[in-house]
Specification:
Rossmann fold; six-stranded parallel beta sheet; alpha/beta; 3 domains
Length: about 625
């Protein structure tokens, strides 16, 4: 209700939703709402007030009905990745366990630096009805509840105790989500009574506002230091991370590498910065990388690290590089730019690469570039053989190769956790840039289908004629599969490759590699399962409305994939793969895991000693 003094009376919930619906972003000259809508499961903590506010804006902020709060958060992350962090979705959950289910998704968004807004129910601020349904009472601090658990996994956290607070809180939350350095999830707790309280808000607060993502110019002195280091390099290398794509700096990265003839390797998040056939693309680096990338990494004397947080799977737990290699950390986030005694270049990747390129008169030695290209050629030959059907029992790599040969270059490929991130990272040959999402920042099993659903919602807003393809193991499928139903209900088609190896096979592999006996990972090795049996995944997926079929061979998978491409419905293709013989065996860097220092097992003791024998290569740093 408008008033004559330039204010409008609204509830807290109504004010939040009205404000969100009037926030826009400029993307390449086109204005669109920065919030693409939301994922919601209603309960007593959010349905009466926030639900009432959302009802009136269904066209502006479409609300997708979730099946599980965790998967809603994964879907929001997949959406944000597809939009390169330029747009986000909100998630709303009820007070108590509904909200608590978002914790894992918040951790994923925080680790991956992804924007996601959580609008979650909270207990009554007056405390008059306490203790209420689903309230976690803290005997010594009545202000402390379940929602406080989100503080370590949120970049911005607030609890609205009065309607006027949203005037400050909402802009701060959005500023955090759009900040290249601080980007991550924002959490806003909404006590059930405060949601419905009213306030006379300034009408100007709800005026349309157009946002732009900040591009921070690098410091001239830091550029000069980086240029000096590169000029002295005999064996330079570029590590290209996910931040390259978030900065929309793929062209600048490519141009810089070509101008100075510096080999490029990719992180897991940075897959698809370069196409597979680019002559300076030497492959993925690290624990789940390639022999080619790891070969040049261990010899490189200057490493330009662009847009990566240098996670242990990239660095081989800091054994992948020479101990005296000089790292240049080019990153929008100061925290990431200075890791391991790097020369920091704090700034936007697009602007910083341009500044480096203008100042750098240097070309890498031909012998070094030839070495890198030769290593990549050998790796390409290995991958070609590794993905070839019939070379061994059914494998992840074979399935990846089949899909790679048949997909459209612009199709989106999704994988997460388990064994598939390693297999996709190592074996997928990028056909076009920006088409791969391997979630390994938080390594969340269950992201595969939910994240793909969120990506498909975003993809439908961008390139509706393309497909979203997700690789999923049977373990991840059993953890979180309900968004098959969501994709069918919302008519957001997915193609799901469900590769069944009889349990948590990749962890069984780690168990065996550290000298341990198979135990509690594969179904057949669980002592509490007297008669193991496989799930009828075809019947299960069909029950949720998907087209589903099982194939016996990679050749049959190819024909099924063609049918899936032609279909308008979500399709699940199931194929059994070998739990022991199907793994990619090359390309791995050392990875630090905890192994027993004392054991009665000779095998475990021997594995521990072997694991520790290479620790001397580990780079020391901060």
């Amino acid at each position: 209700m408008s008033t004559t003094d330039g204010t409008i009376r609204l509830t807290t919930a109504q004010a939040i939703i009205r404000w969100l619906s009037n926030q826009y972003i400029d993307i390449d000259g086109q204005q669109m709402r920065v919030c693409g809508g939301g994922f919601g499961i209603f309960g007593h903590g959010n349905v009466t007030c926030l639900g009432e506010a959302l009802y009136g804006v269904q066209d502006a902020l479409p609300l997708y009905r979730g099946q599980n709060e965790t998967s809603m958060g994964f879907a929001a992350a997949g959406y944000a990745k597809q939009w390169l962090r330029q747009r986000f979705m909100f998630c709303t959950a009820s007070a108590g366990p509904g909200t608590a289910n978002l914790l894992t998704a918040a951790g994923l968004a925080h680790a991956n630096r992804l924007p996601m807004l959580m609008l979650c129910g909270d207990t009554f601020i007056t405390r008059l009805p306490d203790p209420v349904l689903q309230q976690m009472e803290n005997f010594n601090d009545p202000t402390f509840g379940v929602n406080d658990a989100f503080k370590p996994v949120s970049r911005y956290w607030d609890r609205i105790c009065h309607p006027a607070q949203v005037i400050q809180s909402l802009p701060n939350a959005l500023a955090t989500m759009l900040d290249p350095a601080d980007c991550g999830p924002a959490f806003i707790g909404l006590p059930q009574d405060v949601q419905g309280w009213s306030y006379d808000y300034p009408e100007a607060f709800f005026a349309k506002k157009v946002h732009r993502i900040r591009r921070q110019s690098p410091d001239a002195a830091e550029i000069a230091d980086a240029v000096a280091a590169l000029r002295a390099a005999r064996r330079p290398m570029i590590i290209a991370g996910g931040g390259v794509q978030y900065s929309r700096a793929v062209a600048e990265l490519t141009g810089f590498a070509e101008a100075h003839q510096i080999p490029v390797v990719e992180t897991i998040a940075g897959r698809a910065n370069l196409v597979a056939t680019h002559p300076l693309n030497i492959g993925p680096i690290g624990v789940t990388g390639s022999d080619s990338a790891n070969a040049i990494a261990e010899k490189a004397d200057v490493i330009l690290s662009v847009g990566t947080r240098l996670q242990d799977f990239t660095t081989g737990s800091w054994t992948a590089f020479a101990k005296d290699a000089q790292i240049i950390g080019l990153n929008a986030a100061r925290h990431d730019a200075g890791k391991h005694m790097s020369l920091p270049v704090v700034g936007d990747a697009k602007l910083s690469l341009a500044a480096l390129g203008e100042a750098l008169d240097y070309t890498a030695p031909k012998s070094w570039v030839s070495f890198a290209k030769e290593a990549r050629g050998k790796w390409d030959a290995y991958v070609a053989e590794n993905v070839k059907p019939g070379n061994r029992p059914n494998s992840y790599a074979q399935a990846i190769g089949v899909v790679n040969d048949l997909c459209d270059p612009r199709d989106r490929v999704v994988a997460a956790a388990g064994g598939l991130p390693a297999e996709v990272t190592a074996n997928w040959r990028t056909l076009e840039t920006g088409t791969v999402d391997v979630e390994f920042g938080f390594s969340c099993m269950g992201y595969e289908i939910a994240g793909a659903w969120g990506a498909r919602i975003a993809q439908a807003e961008q390139e509706p004629e393309r497909d979203t393809i997700t690789f999923c193991g049977d373990g991840s499928y059993m953890m979180l599969n309900s968004d098959i139903y969501s994709s069918v209900l919302s008519r957001k088609k997915l193609i799901i490759l469900l590769l069944d190896n009889g349990g948590f096979a990749v962890i069984n592999k780690l168990q065996n590699n550290t000298g341990n006996e198979s135990f509690n990972n594969l179904l057949e090795d669980c002592p509490t399962i007297p008669q193991p049996f496989g799930v009828d995944f075809v019947a299960h997926a069909a029950a949720m409305g998907a087209v589903a079929e099982k194939v016996a061979t990679p050749a049959e998978l190819g024909e099924a994939f063609k049918r899936a491409k032609a279909s308008e419905k979500t399709t699940v293709i199931v194929m059994d793969v070998d739990a022991y013989e199907g793994w990619t065996t090359e390309g791995h860097a050392w990875w630090e895991v905890g192994t027993p220092h004392v054991t009665e097992s000779d095998r475990v003791r021997a594995a521990h000693e072997e694991w520790e024998s290479t620790r001397s290569r580990q780079r020391r740093g901060v």
